[in-house]
Design goal:
about 300 residues
Amino acid sequence: MKKQDIKIFLAFGAIYLIWGSTYLATRFAVATIPPLMMIGVRSLAAGIILFFISRFRNDEKVKRENILPLITLGALFFLAGHGLLSWAQQYVPSGMAAVLVTAEPLWIFGIEWFFLKDTRVKLKGLFGLFLGFAGIVYLIHSSSAGTAFNYGLLAPVLIVAGTFSWGGGAVYSRVANVPGSPLLSSGMELIFGGILVLIASFILGEPSEFHFSQVSVKSFCALLYLIVFGSVIAFSAYIWLLGNTSATRISTHTYVNPIIAVFLGWLIADEQITIALLIATAIIIMSVYLVLYDQYMDRKNNHNGSQKA
């Protein structure tokens, strides 16, 4: 096996296993740490680490015109995306949260199609979109059947809203005026996002009700895991893969992450694996496959057509 192949294998292992485990780690972290404060500290700390790594490896600096796009991306990715997810995981099992987040590629596909107009929707992809959203509705409904509108229903809805925000950030990042260095750009997005989340935490009064003595060892270790493994290692592996393999291959982590999350939640946290969860997982994963396969075939046909021309 070539050295490059080994690197690709390890990088995929990182985004498969680590990102699949971050849902359970988030659940442990927010058990005794306020959710917005936790995600703010995680993002800010990871951003600072990535920033200094980028400064060590690259002389590029952030320009004035980069600041607003970086702040916008930080808000979309971390204030809304991770912020809503971390809050909701106080009430939603980690496996269910991971399954709901699996819908993210569907949002990205739909937003690209509607706003950028450079993604064509064929019958298979359109069916995949409707199938995926049907799976989301089914999972949310089954999780809150027989209950009033409370956190049991609100929490999964907010997770879906967070995935929409993350999808919007992913699409906007394609056209945003950000630094050319992926590490520098990612680090600054994490820093700005972390600052915004901490501001929101202060506005909502989380610090006034928080005492460091209440943080359990499990929550503290989970936070460290999220910073080092979830944000620094796995996110760096993701950025590296973007420059060394196709986006279609990278997107396969959306199939694997919920399986890892559901298994770990059952094994470590005694989370129940219900029939509804299994059905919704199968539906959403199938929908993501249909959408990504539709995109792949469209791009392949366009490439073959351009070669013949």
